[in-house]
Structures are given as C-alpha cells and as structure tokens.
Amino acid sequence: MAAALSADTIARVKATVPALAEHGVEITQAMYARLFQDDHIKALFNHANQSTGAQPKALAGAVLAYAQNIDNLGVVLPVVERIAQKHIGYNILAEHYPFVATALLGAIKDVLGDAATDEILAAWGEAYWFLADILIDREAKIRAQIETVDGGWTGWRDFVVAEKIRESAVITSFVLRPKDGGPVIPHKPGQYLTFRFDSPEVAGEKRNYSISAGPNDRSYRISVKREDLGAASRYLHDQIQVGDVLQATPPAGDFFLADQPARPVVLLSGGVGLTPMVSMVEHIAKQHPELEVHFVHGALNSDVHALDGHVRALDGHVRALAKDHGGVTVTTFYSDPLQGDRVGESHDIDGLITLDWLKANTPFADADFYLCGPKPFLRAFVNGLTGAGVPADRVHYEIFGPTDEAIAA
C-alpha cells in the first residue's frame, strides 16, 4: 500500500497547477524525448499516438488533473484501473517505472527552469511514486489472476491466423488460435488484445484491437478497420494471411459487460466501435437470453457496415431462447445511405442516433449504457446521457486512443 502523501507535498504539487496548465504538453513531449533515448523503453510505446501528438496531449491533461485533485484522489483513482489494464496489454513492468520517473522530473526541470526548485522536484517525485506504487500493485494482482486461469499467460504469445474474413469494404476479421495448441483464457465481453508487430513495415509497433467474438477457450476474433494512414491496420489487411503468426498479450481492458447484469442494457456504437459490442451480444445470447438488450449502431452506409448479418442472426437466436421474456433489439442508423440502401432492408433508420430517440425507444431511465465509437461520438453521448440524468456509474465507454484522453466533460 502506498504511503500517504505529506501535506507539504500536496501543497507544492498544487502550486505547480498554473505552470502545468501553460506548459503541460511541452513537459510531456520533453519527457517522451528523454524516454525514447533508450531503445528498450521506446519499444514499449504506441508510436502512432506519439506522431499525432495525441499521447503527449493526453498525458499532459492527466498530469494536470492529478495535480489539481491530489488532495481529492477519489477523482483520480477510478482512472487507475484503465491505465493498469493498458499496462498489462503493453507488458509494462515494475522495472520500467523508474525510467518514467527520471524522465518526468528531468522534463519538468528542463521546461520550468529555475521555477522547478529542489523542493518542487522532490514533491513531484513523491507524488509520482505514490501513484506508481498503486499501479504496480494493481498490475501485479491482475497478472497473478490471469496466471491462475486455465489458458492464461503473461507477456507475448504466438497466435496463428486461422481465418481471414472480409466483413465490409473497410473491416476485416481475423480468427486467432494459439500456435502452441493450448487453450486461451476466456475474455470478458468488451475487452481487447494488444499486438506487437515485428515485420519491417511496422517494426516495433503495438496496437489494441477489441475482441469481436464471445468468450471461449479456443480462439479470439478481432475485426480491424483499415485506416488509410494506419500502418498496422494496412499491414493486417494487405499482408497478413491465413497461417501467419501474430503476437499478443492476454485480454485486457476495464470496459466489459457485468458478469451478472442487474438491469437492461443499451449497447451504443458508431463505426468500428461495434466490435466489442458484438462480443457482448454473443455472450448475452449464450449466458443471459432473458436480458433486455438494445443494440443501437450508427454507420455511414452498407459499404462500411460490418458484421450486421451476424448480429441480427444472434438477435433471432436470443429471441428463440428467451421467447417472450427478453431478447435483443437491433437498430441500425445510416447517416449517409447509398442509393441502393433501403430502410427495413439494409438498415432501420436514416440519419444520426439522437438522445431523444434513445429516450423514446430504450429503457433510458433504468439501463446500463455501454458505448464505443469515434471520440466525437463518445463525447456527445457520454455527456448527453449524464446530462439527461443517467448516473455516471451506469455509463461505460471504451476509448480507441490514448488511455488518458478525456471524454466526459
């Protein structure tokens, strides 16, 4: 258990809030520049988020929030689980934390100059290790839990591509089975796998992809959107074939369906954000056929809408099992339908999903909401739902991007 922070440390860290608000991104950029001088440490990171500036910006926001709330850690600690899960995926170990401490304190000194007194640096050192110790402890517990489950593993494991399925013009699914022939740990519906790529085209790159199939002990499926500027997604779509080997760490993530759902569920997704939802629907079909579920998905049109037939088939399966006592309702919106797209055939409704539609057509006041999609989609609906009175603890969401990126207002 991390030792409590001293009153002097809290006061000194809070005193740096104005400087962090003005220079935070500059500090985190300098921190990463220091870290990446070590090739071993550099290899731990997702460099796509570095090249766009998303990760330094997100981390700067997280550091500022930590400083602002260091005397009210109840605001900060809920983020710990999400960060710890990401660290499991990227195989971040306790031995890596001192490198970050040295880089962060050095960056603060570089950017703030004489304003970063010895007392300020000592306070930030204490504050860093307070949070780091919490993360290290949590990550150790997650790894220990994974190792006790049949099919569990730590670090990187080889998986053979057993199937490659073109789902739409932009989304392809890959079914993966362990090269060693052993079982896999059943994931929690909504979790992701983290992949490490060693091919020259994407050497050293790491990516998270949501698992798009229900939990089982034999295989995983991921469904990947091809991004024109995404090196890893282009590599998977264009180069990886059946029989090829990919490396992955165990399933991770704090976005998943409750083991025993206590209330109706609304699954709300946009674009490729439907992938973790399909995992949830498959699980519900097998384990909770009596549960009332509304799966609401938004896509541009039929050309980019993946897995629709699969989801609707599951809907029928659930209804057959549940009869009149529950089932899944699937509603698809097309915001830019093609000439051949027809309401009632390819999709259900023209236009965008709206809060008013959700209020009128889902168990709005009683449901747990699970959201995944582009960041503007998440910001609109996370803030819209909570603003409309849905308790924050019933609004769950997954971010396709840096862990520390803020969504809720």
UniProtKB/TrEMBL annotation:
NCBIfam families attached to this UniProt entry: PRK13289.1 (NF009805)
Q: Does the keyword NAD apply?
A: yes
Report which superkingdom the organism of origin falls in: Bacteria
**Annotated active site:** Y97 (charge relay system), E139 (charge relay system)
Residues that hold FAD according to the record: Y192, R207, N208, Y209, S210
Protein source organism: Caulobacter sp. (strain K31)
Site location (Involved in heme-bound ligand stabilization and O-O bond activation):
Y32
Required cofactors, per record? FAD; heme b
Residues annotated as binding heme b are: H87
Q: GO MF terms on file? A: FAD binding; heme binding; metal ion binding; nitric oxide dioxygenase NAD(P)H activity; oxygen binding; oxygen carrier activity
What reaction gets catalysed by this protein?
Answer: 2 nitric oxide + NADH + 2 O2 = 2 nitrate + NAD(+) + H(+); 2 nitric oxide + NADPH + 2 O2 = 2 nitrate + NADP(+) + H(+)
Q: Where is the Globin domain?
A: 4-140
Q: What is this protein called?
A: Flavohemoprotein
* N-terminal signal peptide: none
Q: What is its EC number?
A: 1.14.12.17
Where is the FAD-binding FR-type domain positioned along the sequence?
Answer: 154-258
> Do you know which HAMAP family this protein is assigned to?
Hmp (MF_01252)
